[in-house]
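Record type: monomer structure entry
Structure origin: computed from sequence
Chain ID: A
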Amino acid sequence: MSNTRKPLTPDQAMNRAAALCARSEQAPADIREKLVKWGLSVSTANQVLAQLIEQGYIDERRFARAFVNDRFRFNGWGRIKIAHQLRLKGIPNEIIDEAMTAIDEEQYRERLLELLRAKWRDVSDREPRAAWAAMMRFAASRGFETSLAGECVNQVTRINAQDD
């Protein structure tokens, strides 16, 4: 399917991007990509992006904090996956580290335990080693650290084994 739309002028692109940024936090790299997709040259897109940053529509720190909060609370992602996705969006490591401090350690552990308890219902009928391995793979796929995942998997499987 070809894009037969007329390219936006820099002012039109600025207005559209500002409206998008006013609705939700956006990563600078994502907005740059949209500006180019809307027909702006890379240099013009960079100029519009600089204006959006200058006017406060885009802020990497604000975006990173919102991203960390949303992905942890709503998607159930761990720190590894969140940090990786932020890096893919071009967010610098120091900003990622700063945003990650918003995750409460107790809530982090509790969220992983909650996810693992739900997963346990799906794998509890397997041979114990296979069930344990499936739980560890699940925790890793969600981006949780291996050491914490191991502790939590052992806790969930031990508690449920005692219930039997």
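Annotation 1: The longest helix spans residues 105-123.
Annotation 2: Residues 60-100 form one domain.
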